[in-house]
Design a protein that fits this description.
The protein is of the alpha/beta class. Helix content is about 35%, strand content about 20%.
Length: about 170
């Protein structure tokens, strides 16, 4: 599946790649050299840890580069009165008699613990494009779905503080 990213997502990924290539990579290579100088590599924990960190950094760079190659750029704009990307929404879940607040983000920024819901998630897909007062069905699986009422839409913007998820 092709990752749907905003221009800001792409910039953030490019910044991370550059930082990892120019800063983290050099630090990791130095750490490996320093640990290697400590002698016997077979029992050198520092060497193995440094190699693991170096390989992890290279793996993250490859992951981010693949993500950019397969990305589809999407717009952040939506109508004033409909749920769109980066909007903060207040929903009511009758089944649980609870009101919850979320901000819709691209999947690389999704973090439900912080109230960031991906537009690719069942809830994100269900509410995207709908208006205040609409009741929509969130289909979680073939066997389970639930209704939510959209109570409030705030046209918030990406302030650049959301982090890109790890893999």
């Amino acid at each position: 599946m092709r990752e749907r990213l905003t221009k800001k997502d792409v910039e953030k990924i490019q910044q991370e790649i550059e930082h990892r290539k120019l800063v983290v990579r050099k630090e990791a290579i130095e750490a490996v050299k320093e640990a290697r100088a400590h002698g016997d590599l077979s029992e050198n924990f520092e060497y193995h840890a440094a190699k693991k960190d170096k390989n992890s950094n290279e793996s993250r760079i490859r992951y981010l580069e693949r993500m950019l190659k397969a990305a589809v750029i999407i717009e952040e704009t939506s109508s004033e009165d409909e749920v769109g990307l980066n909007n903060t929404i207040t929903i009511y879940i009758p089944e649980d008699d609870v009101e919850e607040v979320y901000r819709l983000v691209t999947s690389i920024r999704g973090n439900s613990v912080k109230g960031l819901i991906s537009i690719e998630s069942p809830l994100g897909k269900a509410v995207l494009g709908h208006k205040t007062g609409d009741v929509v069905t969130v289909k979680v699986s073939e066997d389970y779905s639930y209704d939510v009422e959209i109570r409030k839409i705030e046209n918030t913007e990406d302030d650049g503080t959301d982090t890109i998820r790890s893999y």
